[in-house]
């Protein structure tokens, strides 16, 4: 009986932790975007020949499985620094996995030497500037931050 109660409590706490993580991610997203309805978009240099990239292709790029765009051109993958709220929102939305699993995956990959982390930046402006000035760069920003110097190749559906 006592074991059942402990198991039930543990199960409830696990559910509450998941709920808390989701609520925290949502609140961080709202705080760090200019508009709560402003989805993230994936951007490339305006002259990049790729017109769109699928979610599956993005997962492969951002999880280090592939290093090239669908047309075969090498991709310079840009990301935000670990702990940045947009990174958490993007990677969890893209992969459907919690950020702790993604970070654990990257720790294993880095240790094995099979792939390198994407280049990390501190701000939306830094990502925009790098994508606008680097023909093979790919990054993500809130939709309202997009300028004429970049091209959107993927939009998250709300």
Structural class: alpha/beta
Which quaternary structure do these chains form? single chain
Mean pLDDT: 83
Shape: globular
Note the beta-strand portion.
15-25%
> Tally the helices: what do you get?
5
Number of β-strand runs: 5
As a percent range, the share of helical residues equals 40-55%
| Strand/helix succession | HEHEHHEHEE
Uncertain regions spanning at least 5 consecutive residues: 22-35
Main beta sheet: strand number and arrangement? 5 strands, mixed
What strand order characterises the main sheet?
3-2-4-1-5
What is the end-to-end distance? 45 Å
Radius of gyration: 18 Å
In short:
With 158 residues, the chain is of the alpha/beta class. It has helices at residues 2-32, 55-62, 85-95, 99-112, 124-133, and strands spanning 40-45, 76-80, 119-121, 137-142, 150-155.
């Amino acid at each position: 009986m006592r074991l059942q109660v402990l198991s039930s409590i543990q199960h409830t706490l696990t559910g509450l932790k998941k709920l808390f993580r989701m609520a925290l991610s949502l609140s961080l997203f709202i705080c760090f975007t200019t508009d709560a309805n402003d989805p993230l978009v994936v951007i490339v240099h305006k002259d990049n020949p790729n017109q769109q990239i699928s979610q599956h292709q993005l997962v492969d790029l951002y999880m280090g499985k592939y290093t090239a765009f669908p047309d075969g051109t090498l991709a310079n993958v840009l990301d935000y620094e670990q702990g940045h709220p947009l990174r958490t929102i993007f990677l969890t939305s893209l992969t459907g996995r919690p950020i702790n699993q993604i970070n654990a995956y990257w720790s294993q990959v880095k240790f094995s030497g099979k792939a390198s982390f994407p280049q990390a930046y501190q701000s939306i402006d830094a990502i925009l500037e790098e994508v606008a000035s680097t023909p093979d760069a790919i990054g993500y920003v809130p939709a309202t931050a997009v300028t004429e110097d970049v091209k959107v190749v993927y939009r998250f559906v709300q």
